[in-house]
């Protein structure tokens, strides 16, 4: 390895002004980045890894202040002391950064080519035509097909993965020494994720830059980083070469982080049990409009195209696919939260697809849903007690207030929360605790079936493991059936008995989890499995 | 919650506050930090207190006539004996000398006639809060002679007193109209946004027609429909009805948009999943979350109506004498020669400005504070 040092950071400290004082977001973080090396800052949300990256780029908000003994040495200069003007010369030129959200980091009113050319012309003295030619080359370099046409397109004409490629092209435009990638693939589908990370790796080796990779995903770290810094609560808990850290972790936090990868298997179940939910040839069609207001034509989009499934008591059925595959639409259609265009749904032996809202009411209590985002699924104006009690009141469960209160408390205890938080509001809880609240709301009604719509994908890894454990426990104790929607095959392996793989509204493959994940039959499933468990190909 | 191995306490965050913060407390905490918001809050409170105890705060009977177009009294800390701790008022009177060009008598403070100001001075008779007869006033002259801090109008009535008493009508029109606008606008907005479909389609076209209506000609046409001899309460309620009739549409539009986005939020879907009725979803989930937006549009809507009243009043359409409102007072300032000779006649503009600024500042502060999550 080339031993030239690209960046040497010592004692990075950042604090934020808050009500009644200061919060130290990052304390004494030091690291060394060699040329041609990839280091990873790993940690859960709130660990200060993004703040550290922003401190290097001097992109912190006004409320933040960098401590006096911070030293970030780059090319013999302490970047923490550079003026804004000097920093502008470095940013986007010698040091570049790519962000998590490729949807919002490109300006929608300019073409791709124009945005690339702008970056080039800010830092280099080249003509417009040359900059444009160079932009095409850059797009070729990041492996965007048909770059000559793409360069004239607007960001909305590109997919998420392609936009992230454009972001990388922008970052590489001036052949930087250091690339900071802040969760570059979190917003992307798994198969795209692998492609993007490989691209960064290839380009790193070609241009000899140094990469700071910020992520919470340990599989990514293991595949792509040379050196790892584990962060928690603004401190570096442990650092070391990747293999050494993964095989022999020292700090208890690192051990816990490594141990919280989803593992274990679904509860053993008796396959001969009765059917809880059955869907036959379910089809959900949206009518969309193509063309102008006067000469446009309507066409049908089949979001869910004639799918069937059977869910038995005590079973967990995984519904897997990339974004846009129709898995959420399918799940919600089975629960009658979406309109069915065609098909039949049986729930506990009753046909429910023909029922109106009033007719559905007796069944609502017995089928519940847990959403992906625990921040939008709890009404901010209601207390914990009101949130969980609502279903009880609506369905007339519990005769007296005291009886209902006891059931609310029981639901909280079942979900691993203390029963003393009744008067609190959702904003006082962390993401994992909120997801527990959402689960408590569902189990308070003592349902027989719960639709779990990506309940773990907005959560940190260690919290994710706890929620999976909780879901397994609830299933054991109460004999629940789950329809588990996810794009994360690791979680699916840990929780599901059977799995259905979906693509573009159709079922691609289905079967027991072990069969499908270990011996995938179709190309699409193979790709998904490879992306989830191997990443590097 | 169980602690896990390696989970050290996060020492960066202070955990002093263990009690839960209610919504009100959170909004208050953020509003307190906004300087314009707090200034607005103080001014609005003062304005409401002044309007409520208008008779107590006005030094003169707003309908009693004295000298017409008397200029404001001179208030000074100096008397013939030198500096005094308590200010005295000198009435401005015509002196013996004449202006050498216009031959009008020169006006000036009557320095021989100091009248010490007093708090809680005796003045004209009124009923405190409409119940207790009294003649005490917040400020006055100790011997009970007239005090015109902002001068008098063409009929010799005290402008300050009329401004304070007039705030009642002006604010009353604004508050009643905005209350009705809020109720109608929010209800129709939520209904239209939540029900959607055909009802929404046609209702929104109706809203568009109202929004597109040329307002001023409509006001003028409608107000001329009422006979001049009609009692003043009919006139007032008519003005309010017209303001509300044209004003609810905008709020309804905004609430509809907010409701539509709210109806797609996960917690509303979760409520549907437990089988909650439309009624419950609207009152427990959508309404409380739309209210923050409505409160802000209330505080920003009040100044609009105060301005509307003042300009309708100026044109002589809003309020008829003997009721007093700021707009009506401005009617006196309609001609250039009057403004030139008696500039204090414009002071109602100050009242309007102050009220508009106060509510705008409060609304501004609230807008930032009202969504604390």
How far the N terminus sits from the C terminus of chain B, by CA atoms, comes to: 24 Å
What pattern of helices and strands is seen along the backbone of chain B?
A: HHHEEEEEEHHHHHHHHH
The description of the largest β-sheet of chain A is: 6 strands, mixed
The helix tally of chain A amounts to: 19
Structural class of chain A: alpha/beta
Percent helix of chain B = 55-70%
Radius of gyration of chain B: 27 Å
Strand order of the largest sheet of chain B: 1-2-5-6
Instruction: Report strand % of chain B.
Output: 5-15%
User: Could you give the order of strands across the largest sheet of chain A?
Assistant: 7-8-9-3-10-11
Mean of residue pLDDT values of chain A: 84
Helix fraction bin of chain A: 25-40%
Shape of chain B: elongated
Q: State the oligomer.
A: heterodimer
Radius of gyration of chain A: 26 Å
Termini gap of chain A: 23 Å
Topology:
The complex is a heterodimer of chains A (537) and B (373).
Chain A: E1 5-18, E2 21-34, E3 38-42, H1 49-57, E4 64-66, E5 71-74, E6 77-78, H2 84-90, E7 95-98, H3 112-123, H4 128-141, H5 147-150, H6 160-172, E8 178-182, H7 190-207, E9 210-215, H8 218-224, E10 227-232, E11 235-241, H9 242-247, H10 252-259, E12 275-290, E13 297-312, E14 316-320, H11 327-334, E15 342-347, E16 350-351, H12 357-364, E17 367-370, H13 384-394, H14 401-414, H15 431-444, E18 449-453, H16 461-478, E19 481-486, H17 489-495, E20 498-503, E21 506-512, H18 513-518, H19 523-533
Parallel strand pairs in A: 3-9, 3-10, 7-8, 8-9, 14-19, 14-20, 17-18, 18-19
Antiparallel strand pairs in A: 1-2, 1-4, 1-5, 5-6, 10-11, 12-13, 12-15, 15-16, 20-21
Helix pairs in contact in A: 3-4, 4-6, 6-7, 7-19, 13-14, 13-15, 14-15
Chain B: H1 23-31, H2 35-52, H3 54-57, E1 74-79, E2 82-90, E3 92-98, E4 105-109, E5 115-128, E6 132-141, H4 159-195, H5 197-212, H6 215-225, H7 232-262, H8 266-273, H9 278-314, H10 326-331, H11 336-341, H12 347-369
Antiparallel strand pairs in B: 1-2, 2-5, 3-4, 5-6
Helix pairs in contact in B: 1-12, 2-4, 2-12, 4-5, 4-7, 4-9, 5-7, 6-7, 7-9, 8-9, 9-12
């Amino acid at each position: 390895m080339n031993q030239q040092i690209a960046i040497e950071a010592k004692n990075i400290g950042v604090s934020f002004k808050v009500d009644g004082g200061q919060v130290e977001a990052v304390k004494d973080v030091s690291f060394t980045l060699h040329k041609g090396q990839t280091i990873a800052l790993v940690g859960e949300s709130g660990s200060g890894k993004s703040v550290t990256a922003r401190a290097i780029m001097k992109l912190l908000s006004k409320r933040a202040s960098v401590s006096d003994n911070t030293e970030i040495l780059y090319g013999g200069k302490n970047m923490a002391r550079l003026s804004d003007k000097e920093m502008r010369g470095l940013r986007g030129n010698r040091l570049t950064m790519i962000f998590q959200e490729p949807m919002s980091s490109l300006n929608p009113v300019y073409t791709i080519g124009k945005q690339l050319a702008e970056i080039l012309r800010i830092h280099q003295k080249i003509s417009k035509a040359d900059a444009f030619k160079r932009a095409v080359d850059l797009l070729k370099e990041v492996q965007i097909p048909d770059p000559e046409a793409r360069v004239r397109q607007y960001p909305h004409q590109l997919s998420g993965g392609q936009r992230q490629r454009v972001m990388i092209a922008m970052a590489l435009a001036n052949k930087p020494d250091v690339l900071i990638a802040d969760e570059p693939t979190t917003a992307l589908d798994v198969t795209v994720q692998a492609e993007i990370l490989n691209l960064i790796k290839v380009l790193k080796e070609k241009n000899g830059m140094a990469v700071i990779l910020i992520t919470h995903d340990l599989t990514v770290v293991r595949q792509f980083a040379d050196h790892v810094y584990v962060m928690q609560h603004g401190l570096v808990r442990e650092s070391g070469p990747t293999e050494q850290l993964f095989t022999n972790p020292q700090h208890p936090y690192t051990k816990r982080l490594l141990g919280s990868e989803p593992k274990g298997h679904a509860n053993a179940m008796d396959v001969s049990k009765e059917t809880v939910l059955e869907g036959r040839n379910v089809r959900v069609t949206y009518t969309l409009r193509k063309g102008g207001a006067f000469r446009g034509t309507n066409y049908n989009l089949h979001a869910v195209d004639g799918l069937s499934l059977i869910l038995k008591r005590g079973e967990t059925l995984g519904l897997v696919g990339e974004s846009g595959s129709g898995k959420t639409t399918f799940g919600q259609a089975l629960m009658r939260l979406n309109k069915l265009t065609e098909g039949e749904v049986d729930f506990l032996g009753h046909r429910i697809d023909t029922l109106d809202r009033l007719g559905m009411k007796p069944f609502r209590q017995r089928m519940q849903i847990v959403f992906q985002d625990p921040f939008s699924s709890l009404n901010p104006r209601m207390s914990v007690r009101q949130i969980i009690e609502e279903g009880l009141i609506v369905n007339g469960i519990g005769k007296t207030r005291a009886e209902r209160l006891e059931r609310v408390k029981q639901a909280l205890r079942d979900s691993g929360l203390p029963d003393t938080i009744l008067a609190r509001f959702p904003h006082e809880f962390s993401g994992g605790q909120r997801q527990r609240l959402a689960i408590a709301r569902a189990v308070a009604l003592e349902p027989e079936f719960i639709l779990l719509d990506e309940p773990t994908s907005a959560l940190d890894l260690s919290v994710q493991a706890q929620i999976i454990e909780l879901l397994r426990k609830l299933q054991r104790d109460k004999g629940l059936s789950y329809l588990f929607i996810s794009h994360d095959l690791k979680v699916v392996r840990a929780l599901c008995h059977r799995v259905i793989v979906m693509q573009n509204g159709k079922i691609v493959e289905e079967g027991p989890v072990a069969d499908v994940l270990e011996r995938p039959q179709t190309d699409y499933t193979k790709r998904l499995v490879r992306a989830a468990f191997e990443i590097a190909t | 919650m169980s602690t896990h191995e390696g989970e050290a306490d996060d020492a960066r965050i202070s955990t002093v506050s263990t009690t839960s913060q209610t919504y009100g407390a959170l909004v208050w905490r953020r509003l307190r930090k906004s300087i314009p918001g707090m200034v607005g809050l103080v001014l609005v409170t003062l304005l409401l207190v002044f309007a409520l105890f208008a008779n107590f705060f006005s030094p003169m009977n707003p309908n009693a006539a004295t000298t017409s177009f008397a200029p404001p009294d001179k208030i000074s800390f100096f008397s013939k004996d030198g500096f005094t701790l308590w200010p005295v008022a000198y009435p401005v009177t015509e002196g013996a000398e004449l202006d050498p060009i216009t031959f009008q008598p020169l006006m000036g403070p009557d320095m021989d006639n100091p009248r010490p100001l007093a708090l809680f001075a005796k003045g004209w008779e009124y009923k405190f809060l409409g119940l207790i007869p009294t003649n005490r006033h917040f400020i006055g002259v100790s011997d009970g002679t007239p005090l015109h801090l902002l001068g008098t109008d063409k009929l010799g009535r005290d402008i300050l007193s009329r401004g304070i008493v007039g705030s009642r009508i002006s604010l009353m029109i604004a508050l009643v109209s905005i209350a009705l606008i809020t109720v109608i606008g929010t209800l129709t907005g939520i209904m239209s946004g939540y029900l959607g479909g055909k009802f929404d389609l046609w209702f929104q076209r109706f809203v568009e027609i109202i929004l597109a209506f040329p307002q001023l000609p409509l006001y003028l046409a409608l107000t001329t429909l009422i006979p001049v001899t009609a009692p003043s309460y009919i006139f007032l309620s008519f003005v309010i009805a017209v303001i509300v009739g044209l004003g609810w549409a905008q709020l309804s539009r905004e609430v509809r948009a907010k409701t539509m986005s709210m109806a797609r939020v996960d917690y509303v879907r979760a409520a549907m999943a437990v089988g909650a009725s439309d009624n419950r979803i609207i009152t427990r989930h959508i309404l409380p979350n739309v209210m923050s937006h409505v409160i802000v549009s209330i505080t920003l809507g009040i100044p609009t109506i105060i301005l509307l009243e003042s300009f309708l009043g100026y044109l002589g359409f809003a309020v008829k004498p003997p009721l007093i409102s700021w707009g009506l007072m401005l009617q006196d300032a309609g001609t250039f020669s009057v403004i030139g000779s008696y500039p204090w006649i414009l002071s109602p503009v100050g009242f309007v400005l102050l009220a508009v600024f106060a509510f705008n500042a409060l609304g501004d502060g609230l807008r930032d504070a009202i969504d604390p999550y």
